Amino acid sequence: MRLLALIERAGHVCYRYRVQAYEPWLRARGWVIEARPIPHAASGWTRLLHHAARADVVVVQRKLIAPWWLWMLRRAARRLIYDIDDAMFCRDSNSSKPSHSPRRMRRFGAMVRAADVVLAGNQFLAEQAAAFAPVERIRPAPTCVDPSLYPLAGHERSGAEIRLVWIGSRSTMTSLYEAHAGLAGAARQVGGLELRVVCDAAPELAGLQVAFRRWSSDAEATEIAAADVGVSWLPDHPWSKGKCGLKVLQYMAAGLPTVANPMGVHRELIEHGRTGMLAATPEQWAACITELAGNPELRRRMGLAAREFVEQRYSVRRWGSEYARTIAGERRAGARHSGLPGPHFKQAGVAHTLRKAS
After folding, report:
1. Mean pLDDT throughout 282-298?
2. Whether this model's pTM surpasses 0.85
């Protein structure tokens, strides 16, 4: 059996974590995975449709396909799955234009209606998809990590010696700048600290000692585990509601407590005082980081609780078999669509789309 994944580009993070991570479970059921970037030119679409017609399942990741090509893809694909882990129906938080985009919303609705199954990365995305298709066709599919790939942080350092870590990309670095005031305040209170930035570009953050580490798939886990506290910030923007918390899950898998603002998925992943700390203002950020800096045992206890949380609810081992069944169109015996392992999404009271929210 053949699964064709239509992706943004080779090696894209969404493909690595939301399809490729489940290859062992798919391969055990006889599936072969092929990934191809979604083309822009008509000639590329002609070749792609040929491959789609030969596949047993086609998974479209995130993209909003133009109506004509979507119609052609739907005709060619035996089974079409739409996988979303971002609020693709609105403009992102870096855009200078309003978040609401009628064109993007129309294309999102068309994608959802065309799909046999929608894999939604969080509750908010599931609710938006449910405005366009029967709720039975929408399945929870949180972004997951493999904790066994992450060494556990040692938590030997204290005070000004501690290392914070932020992992991301150039496109998401604006969120790090929004957390700058709290980070700089913590550095002043602690007497200095290091912010390790694992990214494809280095930021300029006054008042902080920044240690830039160029991102690579081979080194990201060890770079995170070499730190003491993970940090994450989501802007107060509709785009943030679609985020699925990958960086936080990576911190937790490495046994780090996370300091984050109480926005979107942060409130679902972080239990304040147990697996990390939620801080809304620069003063709260500084206080939380200062407390963690001075207490290695607290960091160790929170980090172990965070690792356990990921293992139980957001690990690829927890979701691997369910993912493979969904791809094949099977249902777990006795399972309802809202009773899957790990976090499940509420199916009652579906929210209105962003037409009402924006």
Report:
1. 97
2. yes
